[in-house]
Amino acid sequence: MADTVRVRFAPSPTGSFHVGGARTALFNWAFARHHKGVFILRIEDTDRSRSTDEHIVQILDVLRWLGLDWDEGPPASGYRQTERFEIYRAHGERLLADGRAYRCRCTPETLDALRDAAKARKEQFRYPGTCREAGVPASEPHALRLKMPVGGQTVVEDAILGTVTFDNDTLDDWILVRTDGTPTYNFCVVVDDVTMKITHVIRGNDHLNNTPKQIACYAALGYEMPLFAHIPMILAPDRGKMSKRHGATTVEEFRDQGILPEALVNYLARLGWSHGDDEIFSPKELAEHFTLAQVGKAGAVFDREKLLWVSLEWIKAAAPERLAEVLTPFLGPALGLPSAAGAALVDPARLAAIAASLKERSRTLVEMAEQAACYFRPPAAYDAPATAKFWGPEAPHRYAVLIKRHLSQEAFDPESLEGLYRGLAAEMGLKLVDLAQLTRIALTGKTASPPVFQVAALLGKAETIARLKTALAAVERAKPPLGPKQ
Ligand code: GLU
Q1: In the CATH hierarchy, which top-level class contains the domain 384-478?
Q2: Which of 185, 195, 257, 449 is such that its CA lies 20 to 30 A from the CA of 4?
Q3: DSSP assignment letter at 18
């Protein structure tokens, strides 16, 4: 085997970028980085009816967002299968010339009839090899079929699944090139993997059944086989296939939910791969530790709660300035505004301070933006349980005192404000919480928020006083029906 590890991620651009695909990309990337090898991105777009340029753009965008940089691939040309038809054609001709493939003139009608007959016998259809020795001339319309081994077994020594054996009699002479001259999927994959000098094929185990067919093609071409590693599927909590009804399934959905890329990478890495009991890995650490031997054989169940836990850890670890940057697009939606209007409200340094105050309590950027909303607009309403509890008959007087004392307060940092509240509570014979909760309701509309002195300091003196005044007016209007029951 070549010295340099060369692996590829080979998505078909036919749909949204599922987390299963992201994990396959990640394992390839980590394996390449671990071995100081080459990570190749190849776009498998031979299915022209389903492949779109939008999906290709989406694939590149998602891989960049995840930080899975590739060493070879688009935008360089030659990494899209539709650009490589000449290479497939030449390999097809070689197989034909070497007697490893043959022309087949069976018409779709003939094949359909055989297929129907097999179905009636409740058997799997296999091409019976009608044209294998027929010497069909090039002048007749024909497909090209691979001569598969007759009898015996094909053994896949899989780096994850172990030895997997296929009876050759279950396989048939499959089509390499269709009558219209287009190469088939499995043929393109093999030709690409050999011409791109791929050393390890790491892919989802939904491709395991293709492997014996592909192995026969390597043998026919006289190429050395890569090592295969088939990754078990990601399963839904009910151990079925992960689908829409289980919630988010695409990388973009998780991005829109405000999961940081390093959190998603970390979570996906741990899904079916382990390194002792360690849970938190940076992409760099992952690359350092990644081995195929530690990838589990069984399907891994997607656990949203665990993803949110990992996400919180990465939000906690992120620098406030970075959080401010990635939080910005989420502010608009949290404020009921278009994203751009939310972004227009942002002063980066202030948002970094806000993010720093929220990062211990936000599992996603969406949650963080919701909690940050109070810094950008006064509460639209006051929580009913909060007002029922704290807006008693004494509340207007207490708000009035608070307003007065805030007006004369010079230093407006959290520590000074705490001093103010402690002194005031002692003077009035109250507990700190009795005053602090009134202010919290005034500033945020709720009784749960980051430390209230921090909130007031970040809002600034003028806004804090304005909100206290609005709350005073509201409590006066609400009196007496909102008074607590005596
Ligand atoms: N194009 C295939 C897919 O998107 C991957 C094929 C392979 O890795 O061999 O599932």
Answers
A1: mainly alpha
A2: 185
A3: B
